[in-house]
Amino acid sequence: MKLTTTLASGALLCLALSSCAAGSPQSVPAVTHTVTQTATATATVTAEPVAPVVVAVPVPAPAAPTTAIIPGNVAGMNAEALDDDLSALGFKKVVYNADTGKTVLLLSNWTVTGIDNAGAEQAVDKAVVVHVTK
To answer: Rounded distance, CA 27 to CA 17, Å?
Structure first.
């Protein structure tokens, strides 16, 4: 940046101000400042190769079975063990029916006496009825 000012104009300004302070009615001369500014910008851009983007395509999960075969020959099994087996097959609703009419709360305390529709294929969202005793 180049800045040009004249010393004379500064001196005139000082004289003009001092004479005004003395009480003389003189006009103040105009002061001119010349500013010259030069700007140059250079930019260098280097492009780097971009690696290709790999997009993982989701693999659809295997469809859950809609039907399963109700296991047979379950008499004498622990009710909790049978419940685990039925869950593994995909059955969502299992109803435990106590032969004595009591409420079945803790499956590990009950023994299976039978199951409805043993060996039949049934929808997994349909209830499976298991008969138990203490």
So the answer is: 10
